[in-house]
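Researcher: I'm preparing a figure for a lab meeting and need a structural model of a single chain. I don't have an experimental structure, so a prediction will have to do for now. The sequence is pasted below. Please return the structure as tokens so I can convert it later.
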Amino acid sequence: MGKRVVQERLAAMAVIESRVRTGHPSYGRIKEDLDMRLAGYAGEKKADFYMEEATLKDKPMVLKDVMVPAGGKRVQVDTLVLHPAFVLAVEVKNMTGELYFDEDTGQFYRIKNGVREGMRNPEDQLNRSIAATERFLASIELPVRVHGAIVLASYNGLIIQGPASKPIFPVDRLPGHIEKLEKENRAVLKRTDLQFIVDTLSLLSREKQDQYFKWYNLTDDDIDFGVRCPSCFKIGMERGHGKWICKKCNSDSADAHLATLQEYRVIYGEVVTSKILKDLMKLPNIYLANRLLQEKFSTINENKRNKQYRVKSDLSLLEPFIKHLLYRR
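Model: Understood. Here is the structure written out token by token.
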């Protein structure tokens, strides 16, 4: 069903949290936002693993972290399962503690270690995902019902009072739920319909550059520049003898700058110059910066004095760093 790639926003949050000093006024909020996204990503990866166990007659198409247009805005759907017989929106929650859905007030809260904590209602989030997806499908002349489910990725999350209108269950029950949907519904979508949905949503889901500096009141001076070591993930590798050298763990790398350029791209955008690269990677001269860019990247202008290069998205280069953060939690 395809591998879930690192989300653009998760990658950006990881980069910012690791490069902003801990004493910055916004650091606490940055770290809290990152921890929340890491927990969500870990839960979604677990749901992906169990989804592969479903035994189905027709193989579904699965979209992950898809942005569905909704009245000029966009609604993020954790997982959207597209099958000839059904469409399923999955809201994955990696929560612990005793979980309560209060149908009278519409509130959701948990009790953990004796402390009651109000949280965003997953049922409301799922309902928004379903409504947005149904409107989108109707807009492309495929008016079908969208099913929904809330999946708990952590076995330490106990449902004491569940939602009235939507199914909620542990992640290991997801395969059975998908198999049941296939048995109970007749095929209404062709394989060409499914591919059209995938292609259209993939095009619409291209995330525009988020304004992280504005959100967290950051300036360039707040960002710690330097090349990240792919072994210990510390910042500050030095260039020498055609490779990058980490004096913190004594490792070296021929291409550590490529992942660092992806870090630059997710928070600043895809356009980079030799001057920017020299400052970003603390290189001794601009000629080396020019050479590193010319080896891998294409130019987007013909200005010899201020040549611009495009850094294409390759979030796979940041996956080792994200995995390191997950294991560290």
